[in-house]
Amino acid sequence: MMRKRLFALLxxxxxxxxxxxxxxxxxxxxxxxSGSADVYYKYNFNKNVSDNKTSFTNSHNSFELNMxxxxxxxxxKNVGMVADIGFGKRAEDFSYNDDKTRxxxxxxxxxxxxxxxxxxxxxxxxxxxxxxxxDAYANRNYSMSYMFSYGPFFHTGVKADLTFGxxxxxxxxxxxxxxxxxxxxxxxxxxxxYGFAPAEVPVKFYLNxxxxxxxxxxxxxxxxxxxxYQLTPNSASATTERTACIKMVLIPIGTxxxxxxxxxLPKALV
Length: 270
Known about the structure:
By secondary structure, the chain is mainly beta. The chain is about 10% helix and about 50% strand.
């Protein structure tokens, strides 16, 4: 059954890749389909498979088929949806709390925007905390930083996004971090984000929070700040974005941070 699913996914991916120029005619109006493939080779000089110091690359002296991704998006007036699935070892590690499966839902949510400054979303989405993403092609470096390894990876619940000029806000109620289903205990987390992105200067600032009691009834609060500044070189074909990311994990709140990390990540945008 799993092999049939893989063949079906590959067939769809091949069709989209082979018919890129006609992709708008393959789907109904308002739908957009995209995909990516992630493969790598890794050699660890201490020849230890598990000593990888990062996420999603537990291997040594091996070529790896890490993840195949397909993402379908749709919007009609003020209603939208996103379905993003991944197949492979990276997808399995991303959804580590699910039953062992190489086919995982990375994102699946619906949204409704009653006004141009307010949008409600319900489902499962990639975390707002941090700078890096699970999709390798979307990051500056292939290997993930220590900050990403600490998580969170995704949240499942309902959230509201509000935008007022250069300022944006998000508040949501979610299952415990990285759980798509949580029918036990009635535990919920609270997530929030404040963003500042003025149009007149190439600076973006985000302050993120996620917190609640985890599955061991331990208070878990994560606070994260991301600051980006975009440099525009003489060439008009590319820009360079430099990002400073500070992440703090507090368990429980009010104690000495368990983890504090600072990272400066240059990212070339073509």
